[in-house]
Specification:
CATH superfamily: dinb family like domain
Number of domains: 1
Number of strands: 2
Strand content: under 5%
Helix content: 55-70%
Strand order of the largest sheet: 1-2
Radius of gyration: 16 Å
Number of helices: 8
CATH class: Mainly Alpha
Length: about 200
């Protein structure tokens, strides 16, 4: 898929930046008092591991943005290597994942200058605005993955749910259904609970 294939509707601007900052705060608030060793919906990760995954992901986003600005659009890895890369990054993670996520996500969002700026990605160069939406998706979906630890399902709110479903549909062809959040959860391999609204 080339850059020209990503419609502007896939990355609402400038809302995506502020939504991402809000989702970051809500995720950090949610994990602040959780036992880091409690399992999550992502069975390979505890609360600590899931948060380390997010921190490593946003570090990678920041690194890719810098690399693009330095002139290299070389993908960080092949698309089919994403799961392995995520597992490797968490396995090798050191430090406090909560602080690291706060710094890495905040730094990436602060570094964004233009929604149209291109940056490297495993699928080929993409607009920074789309990468911001991918990050927003990570924060919102993984917040819901904390349900075994928090005792409640999470929803980011209708405006963000509709925007994320629109992005996912434009880029990955989202499955049908009425509820955009449920459609997104199903597309990412999760089963929503009908009463989570």
């Amino acid at each position: 898929m080339g850059v020209e294939d990503y419609p502007a509707s896939a990355a609402p601007w400038p809302g995506a930046i502020e939504w991402s900052r809000g989702e970051l705060r809500r995720y950090l608030d949610a994990v602040a008092d959780l036992d880091p060793s409690v399992p999550t919906v992502c069975t390979q990760w505890t609360v600590s591991g899931l948060t380390a995954h997010l921190a490593a992901t946003f570090r990678r986003f920041g690194d890719m943005l810098e690399r693009g600005r330095a002139g290299s659009m070389r993908p960080p890895f092949a698309p089919e290597e994403l799961s392995g890369e995520n597992l490797r990054a968490v396995r090798e993670f050191t430090g406090d994942p909560v602080s690291a996520l706060d710094v890495a996500a905040g730094s990436f969002l602060d570094a964004v200058r233009s929604p149209e700026e291109l940056m490297p990605h495993q699928r080929g160069p993409i607009p920074v605005a789309l990468q911001v939406m991918f990050g927003l998706n990570e924060l919102a979906v993984h917040h819901d993955d904390l349900a075994p630890a928090t005792g409640v399902r999470y929803r980011p709110g209708n405006k963000i749910e509709v925007a994320l479903a629109g992005m996912y549909d434009a880029v990955f062809d989202l499955p049908g259904g009425d509820d955009p959040w449920f459609r997104l959860l199903r597309a990412t391999g999760r089963e929503p609970e009908p009463d989570s609204r």
